[in-house]
């Protein structure tokens, strides 16, 4: 898996070496549902939060402001994106509350990266559509949750409630950035939730432009 991760890391760096400078400015118009997900995190006081594939750090900054008593951690496979993330975190004066590292979503070791084994909340925002082994990434994310913890995932849907021409144009545009919406996101999350004795709440947003899953783990240790 290391070779595949290195290949994907190189691809992401190539895509975002220049894109990272305008990423947040442009993506705010179509990465819908991110702020709803952050509101739904409902992080407990003093809780720990991890973002898988944190990109520019935009979501971590928003979440840290929303939950001032929590501790935040984020990693990404792209060293280029992490440059933007570290710059953003430092510029916002959040170095003491947000820790960043480089890691692979499919097999990251949170203790090696952050010195923490489990988190109260883990979230993945518009990244499973770019992770080749995305099913493994979701399954692995569930293993680093505290009992009763939650995994939140928001990403592109199938656009079933939107005009066909829109769906065709969006898919063609996303493909230029190696983005592929995961139509089976719900059953995959359901299988992971079931394997841990957890529950899944899943919803379609904005006429199925996006889909959002909230997996709650069993309160008993896995």
Give an overview in words.
Residues 15-26 have low confidence and may be disordered. The protein has a single domain (2-216), classed as 3-Layer(aba) Sandwich (Rossmann fold). The protein has 222 residues and is α/β, with parallel strands linked by helices. A seven-stranded mixed sheet has the order 3-2-1-4-5-7-6, with helices on both faces. It has helices spanning 2-19, 23-27, 34-40, 58-66, 79-91, 110-114, 134-142, 164-175, 185-195, and strands at 48-52, 71-76, 98-102, 119-125, 145-156, 199-205, 210-216. The protein is built from nine helices and seven strands. The protein is 40% helix and 22% strand.
Write a short abstract of this structure.
The protein is of the alpha/beta class. The chain is built from nine helices and seven strands, in the order αααβαβαβαβαβααββ.
Query: What's the N-to-C terminus distance?
Result: 26 Å
**Secondary-structure-derived class:** alpha/beta
Question: How would you write the strand order of the largest sheet?
Answer: 3-2-1-4-5-7-6
Largest sheet: 7 strands, mixed
Average per-residue pLDDT, rounded, comes to 89
Q: Looking at the structure, what is the overall shape? A: globular
Task: Quote the CATH topology.
Answer: Rossmann fold
Number of helices: 9
- Named CATH architecture: 3-Layer(aba) Sandwich
Name of the CATH homologous superfamily: Vaccinia Virus protein VP39
């Amino acid at each position: 898996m290391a070779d595949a991760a290195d290949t994907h890391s190189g691809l992401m760096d190539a895509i975002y070496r220049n894109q990272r400078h305008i990423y947040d400015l442009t993506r705010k118009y179509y990465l819908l549902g991110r702020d709803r997900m952050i509101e739904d995190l409902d992080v407990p006081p003093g809780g720990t939060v991890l973002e898988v594939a944190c990109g520019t750090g935009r979501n971590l900054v928003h979440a840290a402001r929303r939950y001032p008593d929590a501790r935040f951690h984020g990693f990404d496979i792209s060293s280029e994106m992490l440059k933007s993330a570290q710059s953003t975190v430092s510029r916002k004066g959040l170095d003491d509350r947000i820790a960043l590292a480089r890691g692979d979503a499919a097999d990251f070791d949170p203790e090696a990266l952050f010195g923490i084994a489990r988190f109260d909340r883990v979230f993945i925002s518009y990244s499973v559509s770019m992770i080749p082994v995305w099913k493994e990434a979701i399954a692995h994310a569930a293993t680093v949750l505290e009992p009763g913890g939650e995994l939140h995932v928001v990403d592109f849907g199938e656009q079933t409630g939107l005009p066909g021409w829109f769906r065709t144009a969006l898919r063609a545009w996303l493909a230029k950035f190696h983005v592929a919406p995961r139509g089976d996101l719900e059953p995959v999350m359901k299988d992971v939730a079931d394997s841990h004795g957890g529950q899944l709440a899943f919803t379609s947003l904005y006429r199925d432009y996006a889909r959002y899953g909230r997996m709650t783990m069993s309160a008993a240790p896995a």
